Amino acid sequence: MTLDLDTPEGGRPLAAPVTRRGFAALVGAAGFAAAVGPAAASAIKTDEAGLVTEAARIPVGDTDLPAYIARPDGAGPFPVVLVVHEIFGVHEYIRDTARRFAKEGYFALVVDLYARAGDPSAMTDWDEIGRIVRTATHTQVMRDLSRSVDWLAETRPDADTGALAVTGFCWGGAVTWMFSAHDPRVKAGAAWYGRLVDPGPGRFSAGMQRPWPVDVADRLNGPVLGLYGGQDRGIPVTDVETMRTALKKAGGPSSIVLYDDAPHGFHADYRASYREQAAQNAWSRALAWFRQYGVG
After folding, report:
1. Residue 170 annotated among the catalytic residues of the structure
2. 218-109-87 Cα angle (round to 5)
């Protein structure tokens, strides 16, 4: 099955199908998701000047989850932002995004939520990627992230978990909504084009026994800013409006910004879906949102 890079979790055939061999031939930039080929010229590269970056292992149950940390150089403590990866897992774009937050004064933590099953960032076959992603159930992901915050509170005096934000992209965008409803420590969230409602028959994740963001709109502990594209082929504007209605009914401050001309993945500067103006505006809004609600 071919990948669709303009929807939240792929799975729909592309207009011009690309074979597994064809995808493999595209791969040329080490560290970026294999499924999307070499990094585009627009890919942002954030240096480590003034930062400390490190790998970590977070004990969760009977396993240790790999994690990537980027934080300012210094004693801290620094406000924390959990950066939840997209469907392709932890690759260079996600690590670079963590460094961007660190440059803004945050302790950024990326947890590999697929680690028990494999690493999709090096894969080009949708069925293989989908198999890994499906192992990361809603219950497991919520537990993994909560335990990661516990670990920070217990072991990292440089991380201020009393000032906790969460953000995520694509698959991680939906996780952002859900974790904001799950963990009372979350002060603010910024969800980038994650699914909002059950995708329906024939779509990835359809039929799974799990809640969706629209189901928890009235249970958000920290307000969430949704950042969505009007040209997203996998998340129609009708879904966005359904979520807006649910948020309005809930009566809290959470809201959604819709970029009319932006496709899915408009912040993903390493691929063709990137839209610089929308991405920069949304990034500024996310930072302002976190600071408005006491994170940063």
Report:
1. yes
2. 70
pLDDT-flagged residues of the chain (< 50): 1-2, 10-30, 206
Q: Both tokens of residue 217?
A: 């709109």
Selecting among 85, 182, 264, 267, the annotated active-site residue is 264
Could you confirm whether 267 is annotated as catalytic? Answer: no
Residues near 27 by Cβ (< 8 Å), separated by ≥ 6? 34, 37, 38, 124
**Which residue in 232, 239, 267, 269 is the catalytic one?**
232
In sign, the C-alpha dihedral spanning 152, 156, 160, 162 is positive
Cis peptide before 17 (omega within 30 of 0): no
Chain segment 81-96, per-residue pLDDT in tens: 999 999 999 999 999 9
Q: What share of the chain is helix, strand, coil (3-state, %, to 5)?
A: 35, 20, 45
pTM of the model: 0.90
Domain ranges for the chain: 20-292
Fold exhibited by the domain 20-292: Rossmann fold (3.40.50)
Name the active-site residue from 91, 112, 170, 183.
Answer: 170
Catalytic site includes residue 260: no
